[in-house]
Amino acid sequence: MARYLLILAGGAIGTLFRYIVSGLDYKVSNGIFPISTLVVNLAGSLVIGLLWGLFEHVNIHSNMRMFIFIGILGGFTTFSSFSLENFNLFRDGEVKIALTNIFLTNFFGIAMVFIGFAISRYLINVLK
């Protein structure tokens, strides 16, 4: 039961962070490009890569890992919003914007995991 509560609490935290970032769409792109989803997915990818690399060298309890990875990062990043936004872009005839979003999210999302992991390796070597 404690694991479920930890995941629930982490999800609430991640969802709140996601909501805060969602205001970027209208402030930055006037709602034309789904920038907030791109930002949270790229930031989430960077953080998950960074933490994954660090947690290989730091003993973190499995409940804490679930709290962070499933709860916080699961609530923060959102593939379903990404999918819906692209569906709507395609439906509205905004094919170039949709394809740009799909490319940016996938290419840079994977790149951010690599970068986060590399940063964790660097930090571990510096702190030795």
Task: Compute the number of strand runs.
Answer: 0
Class of secondary structure makeup: mainly alpha
**Sequence of secondary-structure elements:** HHHHHH
What count of domains describes the coordinates?
A: 1
Keyword list:
128 residues; mainly alpha
At a glance:
By secondary structure, the protein is an all-alpha fold. The protein contains six helices and no strands.
Q: What's the SSE blueprint?
A:
Layout: H1 2-22, H2 24-28, H3 35-55, H4 62-76, H5 79-91, H6 95-127
Walk me through this protein's architecture:
With 128 residues, the protein is mainly α. 84% of the residues lie in helices and 0% in strands. The longest helix is centred in the C-terminal third of the chain and has 33 residues. The protein has one domain. It is built from six helices and no strands.
